[in-house]
Amino acid sequence: MPHARDGNLRIHYRDTGADATPIVLIHGHPFNSSAWGPQEDALGKSLRLVLPDLMGFGESEGPEQRAYYSVDTFAGNVLAVMDAAGIDKAIIGGLSLGGYVTFALWRLARTRIAGLVLADTKAEADNDDARATRTAQQQRIEREGISTLADEMLAGPLLSDATRADKPDVVERARRAMDNPAAGWVGALQAMKERPDSTPNLSSIDVPTLIVVGEHDAITPPALARLMHEQIAGSRLAVIPAAGHLSNLEAPSHFSGAVAEFVSEAAGGI
Q1: Looking at residue 59, which CATH number applies to its domain?
Q2: What is this structure's pTM?
Q3: Beta strands 209-214; 113-119: pairing state
Q4: How far is CA 137 from CA 17, 144, 150, in A?
Q5: pLDDT tens digits, residue range 215-263?
């Protein structure tokens, strides 16, 4: 797997290498780039997919101290990967945490963005209750590790009821992609609870934008996706049937089809 250097950190990424439109897809928490496997299979020959492991996840290095983690430092990881891959401008997409990182990239380096894919994410910052929940999870991980919490998350709102009941292979694939260092989990929770509100930035987005959300996403529900859609001029909204928060894994053909159609129209910006 190729890698980039972001300061002292080695940041790994997957690159299909196709001679085609580049799209960078940023994974959610607490996953790594392997969570994009269905898209790598479906789109990797027609698009150049670049799939970073954010610091502390997958094969990327990450500091132990939570204070080093923020959506801006994650955005720096992505820019380092783009530089290493020789990509000046790309369509940038992210799911959940990856969406928060995508908003950070828009604030920091919008000239390098030809289009956006915002999947199962939201513009709002955490409220007090959400921050308290993330702090409690950090403390629990530091005491117990990740295993029990990972199982509880999969049994909770990450997936739709239909996925848990009928698609054990998807549940298992998601569980494997959650097998990341505890420091990455704790750091990502820190980044999420301290991220800024991106709502004021929505009206400034002037590149082609696709907003994707699972029909049964209980974490960032369709109502929040519609709010983004209303505030980003010219954006399109795709609601993925029968999917929860991990719409790219739960309904990969629908998700990949929506992305492929969007990219074919947005590619002129590169």
Answers
A1: 3.40.50.1820
A2: 0.97
A3: parallel
A4: 38, 10, 11
A5: 999 999 999 999 999 999 999 999 999 999 999 999 999 999 999 999 9
